[in-house]
Amino acid sequence: MGYFRLARRNAWRKPLRTVLLMLCVAIAFLIHGLTASFEQGNMAAGSASDDVLGVASAAGRGQSLPMAHLSRLAAEPGIAAVSWMTRLRGYAVRESNIVAISAVDPATMVQVSGTELGLTPVLMAALATGRDRVLVGRTLAEVQGWRVGQRITVTVPATPNKEGSRDWRFEIAGIFEGASPASDTHFVIARYDYVNALRTRGTDRVEAFVLRPAPGIKAADLARQIDALFANSAAPTRTQSEKQFLQAFMRQYADVGLIIDLVVGAAFVTLLMIVINTQMLAVRERRFEIGVLKTLGFSQGRLLALVLGETLFIFLTGGLAGLALAKLATVMIGPGLGLVLPVQTLGVALVLILGLGLATGLIPAIRAMRIPVTAAFRTR
Amino acid sequence: MTTTPDLTPWITLQGVRKGFRIGTETVPVFSGLDLTIPRGDFVAIMGPSGSGKSTLLNMLAGIDSPDGGTLQIGGARLDSMGESARSAWRAHNMGIVFQFYNLLPMLTAAENVELPLLLKPIAAGDRRARVEKVLELVGLAGRGRQYPALMSGGQQQRVGIARAIVTDPALLLCDEPTGDLDRKSADDVLDMLRFLNRELGKTIVMVTHDPQAATHARRTLHLDKGQFVEERKAA
Known about the structure:
The complex is a heterodimer.
Chain A (H helix, E strand, L loop, with lengths): L2 H9 L3 H28 L10 E5 L7 E2 L2 H7 L3 E13 L6 E7 L1 H12 L3 H7 L5 E5 H7 L6 E5 L11 E10 L11 E4 H7 L6 E2 L1 E6 L5 H11 L7 E5 H10 L4 H30 L1 H10 L3 H33 L1 H4 L5 H28 L2 H5 L3
Parallel strand pairs in A: 4-8, 5-7
Antiparallel strand pairs in A: 1-10, 1-11, 2-9, 3-4, 3-10, 5-8, 6-7
Helix pairs in contact in A: 1-12, 2-10, 2-12, 2-14, 10-14, 12-14
Chain B lengths: L8 E14 L2 E14 L3 E5 L6 H9 L6 E6 L2 E2 L5 H11 E4 L11 H6 L9 H14 L15 H13 L5 E5 L7 H16 L4 E5 L3 H4 L4 E6 L2 E7 L2
Parallel strand pairs in B: 3-8, 3-9, 6-7, 7-8
Antiparallel strand pairs in B: 1-2, 1-4, 4-5, 9-10
């Protein structure tokens, strides 16, 4: 019998109470896992760049811009690099399994967004090996279970190809990770030349130009300058930073991030109060036994570790169960709802479990540590 | 082999003072208590309720400290140690046997006995071997997997003694060890304490109300109103 076993035995002395506490922790981390999945899958605005500008049609989303704008943009001062893209919105296997494809010009895109997307020279070389090659984001690859070398078919209802089919076939050349765990990697990067050559609608037009301002140039000033440039053209533009674009998109529904933070915050505060209160009660019930342990020579530090170990056991069991359920949910219904729970988010949740376990155990543990033996013996 | 006590004082109390605050007043229990116990002795302490027996035992155990005077055991000044140091000292030098056994109900007999060994750097296999050995010594071989609730009072007290001696301490403190037992079980426990004293050389200080229990000790000290009033040596 070691310390952990002793802590576990203490935790299980009232099985119903312990199971209810674990359930409480599991539900909190299920909520956390699902909301984190939602944020990861739908709201990468937090990691989006302020330095990358997107030039789209002022007429609204879904309207394209002529390729002719490229030469005017390239000639404009204050721009370090410019690229272009068009998006295909389709699904894999079933309609609820949505897949977004960004068809880009690899050579220029890597100059604009290569760092943010984590586009390494190896990935770019792999993409260059064939026109139908694509790079898949890490989170999307995990959700779909896709591997490098696999051939995939994405059905794009709005964009038939010249073969007369709406099925677009690609081969996965690599998986991009994004610059940070919060980066949006829930999409496919395809080659614009391949998509443009095969599509029957919107040929030689783009959905947006993306550009990086030259050093020292303010993105907001450059955005105004570009929109002014095309104001009187046949296709006026609206230029926004990548972050502004995503935030504006999400605000069409609500301030989802704030709502999520409030829900998770309320769940965790409630959880903390329940566990602290219950553990205080457990320590109070056990004052006499704590006195016995002290008499046997258990130091204050060891008693602190024992109560903390008990709380950690409850948190780890409940928290991991909650995260496992959240992961299961993202695998089963995630693709339809855009839920993604990557390994990094699970790692953060694990740190949260340990942190909360220690935080909630600390007050009862300090109380146990400070009980004088003579006072403990009087409680029998 | 029967051991006899070394006559050099091993436990020494000099001018020990102790009182308890009740409201604004301090009620004195000891006002200059002196006591010496040589190593290998078996001392029974008797006295009426409120005479200070338990307070004395608590101070010897280091779970309560004197307000003044010196308390020394085997060269260690318990009166000047902090709580952590006293805990460590207890873990290495002392075993305590309680009146109501004080076993942890969610642990088996063997796990209860193993508890003090968790405080020492001993491998799990060695811990188990030591636990088996002491359970055999107290006559509970093969009962290690039983939970305390399924054992008789006498058996639980033997588990308590096994827990007290598993670390092989030099000193055993017994607080009314037979107070909750029938005569037969009480005699078994007292025989065991005598064995531990005579054969293994443990120094034992036992607080008891039972005159028959006291006859198992080498000498009996009577405490009344915070002073030793009588000393009787075993025949």
